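To assess whether ligand presence alters the predicted conformation, the chain was also submitted together with calcium ion. Input:
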Amino acid sequence: MLGRRQFLTGAAAAAALVAAGCSSSDADADAAKPTTTRAAKPAAVTVPTTAAGGVDLATNPFTLGVASGDPLSDRVILWTRLAPDPVADDGRGGMAAASVPVIWEVATDERFTRLVAAGVVTATAEHGHSVHVDAKGLEPGTDYHYRFTVGSHTSLVGRTRTLQTGSPDQFTMAVVNCQMYETGFYGAYRHLADEDVDVVLHLGDYIYELPGGDSDRSSKPNRFLTTLTDYRLRYASYKLDADLQASHVAHPWVLTWDDHEVANNYMGDTIPGDPDASHGRARKAAAYKAWWEHQPVRLPAPDGSNLAVYRAFAVGDLTRVHVLDERQDADQPPCRPAGGTALDYGDCDARLDEDRSRLGTDQERWLTSSLAEGGVTWNLLGNPVVLAGVNAGKDTDAYYLDTWDGFPQARERLIAQLADVDNPVVLTGDYHAGMVLDVHAKPFEQSSKVVATEFMSPPISSLLFPDDISARTPQLREQLNEHGYLTVSVTPEELTVAFRVLADVGDPKTAISTPSTWKVAKGNPVATKA
Ligand code: FE
Ligand code: CA
């Protein structure tokens, strides 16, 4: 596991601990001899062991596991949420109104003998007793272990990894999406926990807003999600899954969202079937807050229905990953009349007539500058919905208008930008299938040049859309109607994508295999099957 990673020496550990701002005298004392002394918890902190404000600390509050995310070369976000009764009906996880101090620790070893950062963070009822610690002063390209403590309870030990700097030999990422709880087990996450990846990139549909039902594998609550309580219950329900927790424990994640984090096919402030934008904004505000409370993201707590989620990270001079939000500020797709029935699938006459924005003005401007930064060999796009175009009709043309197919002018602008940067590769989710597609300068026009290859990750557990789309989608190179995920590995010379697919999503102990592997060589956007 450790391989090319460098572990901190005692001196570096001490320097890092001081840099991390650990103020307690115990921590400083440990820093002087970090390799020989087990680091004590900061002595000034005492956490009540009985019901402070009704909190029953006799019960383990770490039921939802731990997570890390948004790693940089010197810092990473550490997350947990206190929830001794995780799916209590009021969505408060069994916590009362009182704030609770939570100790966090980061070490280079699993037994926490080489502590490099520690502190105390306050979990408040306002944020559902979630915590987001930005653990700083870390070394690049290094594995760390972290944990949280409240009273006598200590969390699972998570493992995380900072990004490399300089000229890395390799960077590896898993790409995941679409994990409806009721339609399959998380065998994919059990396997992903064992992979050696630097980052897990989640492209959305982490939850679904539909009623959970009442089967053996049903998430709470059994109603459409509309309120903060509803969305909190849904995240807590999903996050109780041991295999999902294992993948969070094993790797740092970078997450964006798609539609089902709020509602099916929502776009901007409008939810299909409900033309009142104030309802859409209220729903977004509840959903975004619950998403933030449950994910290890380096983002401010959302205030209302706005949260800028788009962001990028670079791995030395090897790659930059630009992560997009394609729902929050999108214009309405065509053929979705106010008060009328939305045409979400079909061939819409208005499709080509109106210019409309998919990303919103601010994000478009940000993406232009992020792509222009350069200095990297590979530009990977974390793009929730399919860009290259899919014509899913059998006898006539038919498009899913909430994908980029409903936004042809904005799509051509984006593809033209990709044509200007070094080695763009598009990573996509949403469609509930695995695909490899050529992104042409003019989608569906085979005579226009290929600008990039698009790799669509299969769903973790959501129902497959297994229809063969090849008849009217000439840019399709391969379609895999399977569950699983992608691993994407880049070196200075080539990018390799492996389709990791499950034998049976209905079996939590399912086997996994790699039926298809593709490569993109530096300087040539057309992928070849290995
Ligand atoms: Fe989905
Ligand atoms: Ca979706």
